[in-house]
Amino acid sequence: MTLPLVIAVVIAFGWAPGAALAQSSAPAMPGMTGPAMEHPPTAPPFYRERTFLVLVGAGLAGTGVLAYRLRRARQRRPAGAAGFVNEAVLVVDLVESTHLATHYGDAVAMRARNSLKDRTLAAAEGRGLAFAENTGDGLLMTFASVRGAVETAIALLEDLRDRAPDLAPGPPLAVRAGISYGEILLDERGARHSAAMNKACRLEALSREGFTQVAGAGEPDEIPERNRILLDEAAASELRGAGIPHRFAGFSSLKGFPGLHRVYEVRWETGA
Question: What are residue 231's DSSP bridge partners?
Fold first, then answer.
């Protein structure tokens, strides 16, 4: 039942009894002829007067309107901040997903996405996964530590190398990973909001052309376009002492972030 209909019913409920009462008359005495005996008029109880009933109905309608508006306001209110946490952000994404769909069909592209999702979540087990969100062609995840995020990315790439999923007639599945570290806003619903999340996305999508030569820093090293793990400076700093080999790859500009940023590459392949 809609709100206008409820208000109409309530007002009608308050109007009808009063109207009926105003139209009622004293009943005739049986067996009497001639003019009816006149009795002095008697005022009805206040709670049966039409004005009182109409006011009650209007009050109930006003209360209903107020309750309805309060409920809608609560539904529209954005979630408030529940606190801040320091977490590592890992973004993994399927390489050339559009090419897979246009050249080998949507079924092959869907198999690739599902395989990437399942294997990434399996690689994250026992490594401090705090949050995971589907990005369409990949996943955005947060971890309690940079080490947990890096080990997840390495386990995923090793799994894809050693047990490549069957995407025939498509090419082998290839991915890219970006990892950042920083403060993250945690809202009341458990969702994450942070510039660190955007930075991890920029690192994942970074191309060779995104690197900049800086005087005195030498030529930027070659960065693979696929099956790679890139870190921001904060993540690389947190990774020191973890025994995971990584190297400085060069300076890069990242869309939406001012200045140049140090970028590091994880040497995940055996013997690297």
Answer: 179, 264
Rounded Cα distance between 246 and 231, Å, is: 9
- Per-residue exposure over 219-248, b if at least 16 CB sit within 10 Å of its own CB, e if not: ebeebeeebbbbbbebbbebbeeeebebee
Report the candidate in 221, 224, 210, 218 with the shortest Cα–Cα distance to residue 261: 210
Please say whether the beta carbons of 119 and 127 come within 8 A.
Answer: no
The model carries a pTM of 0.69
Contacts of 24 (CB under 8 A, 6+ apart): none
Q: How far apart are CA 232 and CA 245, in angstroms?
A: 15
From first to last of the 272 residues of the chain, give the pLDDT tens digit: 555 554 554 445 444 444 444 444 444 455 545 555 555 666 666 556 677 666 767 777 777 767 777 677 655 555 555 788 999 999 999 999 999 999 999 999 999 999 999 999 999 999 999 999 999 999 999 999 999 999 999 999 999 999 999 999 999 999 999 999 999 998 888 788 999 999 999 999 998 888 887 766 666 667 889 999 999 999 999 998 888 999 999 999 999 999 999 999 999 985 44
Fold of the domain spanning 81-266: Alpha-Beta Plaits (3.30.70)
Tokens of 264: 């590091």
> From the CB of residue 105, how many other CB atoms can be counted at a distance below 10 Å?
13
216: region left, alpha or beta (phi > 0 left; psi from -120 to 50 alpha): left
What's the rounded Cα separation, in Å, for the pair 137 and 272?
28
Which tokens is 184 given?
């993250």
Tokens for 13, please give them. 């409920």
Measure the N-to-C terminal CA separation of the chain; round to a whole number of Å: 68
Instruction: Confirm if 272 and 245 have CB atoms less than 8 A apart.
Output: yes
